[in-house]
């Protein structure tokens, strides 16, 4: 049963991955436009072809675009197996290097946002579950639910207008101050933190309510269980009962959700990074789409999709470890 | 309301749709304050959308003033960089956002719901195919794919609706299926079958009334998802360039080079931002209350 389950899960992941690979390969090739019309033009959207037919053929051959489609696909898969994602036409370097350059920024804000939203969500959820009979809880819950309905990029725009434009507390764009010289590593970390703060908060706020509601609901369910009554009966204080007994049992679904949250955040980062002009993988995807950089789009989609799938798989594993009931 | 059903199976609660129009008042009276506010806001936006040509003083895509005028009596919300009236753009943009949202939601909700009912009712290969597709669709990272696919299909309203439908029919299908499976086991179905009811009759008479309220709530949810996604895509520059949706307004305003260093954002960027947030909040309030009133079971059994 267990083995069968695991096989089914792996099989589903394999199918999903295959779909992503196929989409990934097919979509950019069907897009309107031509990578060589922007390569030769300084103005975006204005197709100036200054290459001769020979130069064009040379470049098509260089990037492997003159092969039949199925050969391109086989080439694509075999290159992938070698870790070669192709060459970016815009950046004029291997896609893997472009991704390596931008992915750390995205990972930084996504991970920080995940940690922040999970911790804040658990704390707020616990407070809310404890006060659920007071009127204040209803206000908090309605407020947070309403908050969750604002999409992250709109929230980001509000924060940007408020803190960067109106109050001028945080920098407007980028991940580091351009041309800055740092005296110490601490100063550099401070600069990076200042730039990353608002994107992280935006992403975290967008996921906060999900974690909060889940913690609150499971806590309320758990708190009606017999062992909670026992714990209270043997004279344990409220804080100990809530944290040691109730919360520990309520955290399982929250752990599962974390994987889901990371996936959502990777997707949401595309828009939020564009709002803050943050040089992560999301902004790169946007510029790749504008510049019809086939290989780069494929590479980014693949990285994003695979990391989301891996997160789900990993969480599934962790969940099995944490909850012995799942195994049998 | 057939009497036989409640006699055969008294457990099944009375579906709301059987009551007719007079129950609308009943449903409304059970709305919370937020729900009523949401409904009011939604009605207001709907009215703005319908009467856009009458309440806006200028056509939205015509140059009627100087570039980037501050709000005055002549231009209620000022003008954008090309000298087009922003209040008019907001009015017509409401049409665009609501149209895209509703179109996606209705197609995805009804189509997905129908597929779910069929999958749940017939089971076997149909079920397998539909549910595996749903699984894959739900595992795919929707936003990056939305960006890439809409770039590849080319920006037009029809394409945006099409893509959003593809990415949003999975949830209604899944819920309609689980609901159908739950009803299929009831005694009333067996009884009706033994009286010679055809599958079509069973679906229309017994399954649809149970599934519809849930679908209705889901459709409102998908509407807000679609409005949000359209605004997001438009914001990235992947919207229909000929349309003036609120997302496109955000795109033009944020693409303006020195928008954050000038006071222009106050009347160019803020109105579409506020309009979108108000619309999404109103939709959320209404859908939450409808969910509570129409189907208390969704909260416990839906679990998505």
Cα radius of gyration of chain A in angstroms: 24 Å
What is the CA–CA distance across the termini of chain B?
31 Å
Sheet with the most strands: spatial strand order of chain A = 1-2
Given as residue ranges, the uncertain stretches of chain A (5+ residues, pLDDT < 50) are: none
**Count of individual helical segments of chain B:** 15
- Helix vs. strand class of chain B: mainly alpha
Please, how many helices of chain A? 13
Quote the beta fraction of chain A. under 5%
Q: Got a strand count of chain B? A: 0
Radius of gyration of chain B: 23 Å
Largest sheet of chain A: 2 strands, antiparallel
Order of helices and strands of chain B: HHHHHHHHHHHHHHH
Note down, in words, how this protein is organized:
The complex is a heterodimer of chains A (328) and B (304). Chain A has 13 helices and two strands, in the order ααααββααααααααα. Chain A is mainly α. In chain A, strand 1 and strand 2 (93-94) form a beta hairpin. The mean pLDDT of chain A is 80. Mean pLDDT of chain B is 80; it is low at 1-17 and 298-304. The interface between A and B is large, with 47 and 40 residues.
Helix and strand topology:
The complex is a heterodimer of chains A (328) and B (304).
Chain A: H1 2-30, H2 35-39, H3 53-62, H4 69-81, E1 87-88, E2 93-94, H5 95-130, H6 135-148, H7 152-166, H8 185-223, H9 226-233, H10 238-276, H11 281-290, H12 294-322, H13 324-327
Antiparallel strand pairs in A: 1-2
Chain B: H1 3-8, H2 23-29, H3 33-50, H4 52-55, H5 86-122, H6 124-139, H7 142-153, H8 157-168, H9 170-184, H10 187-194, H11 199-235, H12 246-255, H13 265-268, H14 270-294, H15 297-301
Helix pairs in contact in B: 3-5, 3-14, 5-6, 5-8, 5-9, 5-11, 6-9, 7-8, 8-11, 9-11, 11-12, 11-14, 12-14
